[in-house]
Amino acid sequence: MVSQVAATGPNYACGIGPAFAVIGGKWKAAMLWELRDGPLRYGELKRRIQGVTEKMLIQQLRELEADGIVHREVFHEVPPRVEYSETKLGASLNAALGPLADWGDRYARRASAAR
Predict the structure, then answer these.
(1) All structural domains of the chain with their residue ranges
(2) pLDDT tens, 12-23?
(3) 86 touches 32 (CB < 8 A)
């Protein structure tokens, strides 16, 4: 399922627009990046992404799920358990984020050295 933003957004000149429509926001890319090594429960994800509020974590996980990037699986146990994982589409997006993360590391080191 594609979100309304990605599906009905402006007429983009290149693929950057739709990509950022899906991962735009402060936390979505970080959430997806944390899921690259396997499924995580909500609490685990919250601990790994320091600074995210519960409201934003829930909201952005729902948006990523609606866009087909993240899968939410509910295990009918006592107590109930929910896990989040990347979909195939999410894994392909994570692969694309790898070079961007590398660039960000280099930029952060450069900016830090300049101070």
Answers:
(1) 4-114
(2) 788 888 888 899
(3) yes
